[in-house]
Amino acid sequence: MGFISISRLFVYIKYNWLPILLITLSIYDLRIDIRILIDFFTFSTLFYTISEHPLAITILITIPSIFKTINKT
pTM value? Predict the structure, then answer.
């Protein structure tokens, strides 16, 4: 049973490695801002994060649609 689920995990990662890599790099880029937002949330920090990291925010917002198109093909 455990071997089957590990095998399925490897197949999933094999076909979705690019979105997983993009998510990981986006969160790594936002790590300091996420920590500040969790410790002390302010709207100015939120707006700063969105304005200074537009690519990372865009990737995190569009990832669900990317996974949908990958699963259909």
Answer: 0.75
The domain locations on the chain are 18-72
Average pLDDT over residues 13-28: 91
- pLDDT tens per residue, range 40-72: 999 999 999 999 999 999 999 998 887 776 666
Q: Which residue has the tokens 């990317």?
A: 66
Question: In what helix (H) or strand (E) does residue 12 lie, and over which residues does it extend?
Answer: helix 2-15
For residue 45, which of 28, 33, 35, 58 has the smallest C-alpha distance? 33
